[in-house]
Amino acid sequence: MPVLRGAVTFSRFLVEPAEGAAADLKRSLSRALKARAFAPIDRRSEEERAAGFVELENHDATEFSAGALFYGEYALFGYRIDTIKVPGPVLRAEVDKWAAAFEKEKGRPPSRGEKGENRSSLRQVLRNRAVPLTKVHDVSWNLKSRQLQIWAASRKAVEEVLNAVETGFKVKLTPLIPASAAARMGIDEATLGPTAELIGVELAAELPVEVSHGEA
Q: Given CB 3.0 to 4.6 Å as the disulfide criterion, which of 19, 25, 112, 153 pairs with 9?
């Protein structure tokens, strides 16, 4: 829970309403989170992944009451991703063990159909035993300044949470980086660069100057 208990890599964005956004985001926040709340993987299905919003301090809760969601000017919540997968080598070892027992009992090796049917059954057994791998990425949203932070280190994770927020709340997230700020202010990105104060006046004076000579 990096938002409340320490520091970790995060990405910062400016939140701007898109077409269809609610007039009062704060009042609609809980409803939007519930609509895309996390639901556990259905072990009877073939799905290997589940993702959705959860409460910040209880990653199994999706009620999003005001007391659990709002901290002063901030809305704090998490984006949970569960994955469950049966490793291939483990499944093969179980199938081989079953095949050896089958041949010992029946006096013949199992047919391809028998082996395939048992493989599916064994996979389901292993799937039911497997513990899902859970990752939760914190999200902090300052509703007053319209700034949102996604606490994740990987670019892939940031993009997934970003897409979920944009889709769920009908907003546009613009990265708060110098290039984006310059674009909003109408400043040419090519003019951005370190100042003399930043690199040192003496060092700046020693840097070569590019001269355009034109055509002869």
A: 153
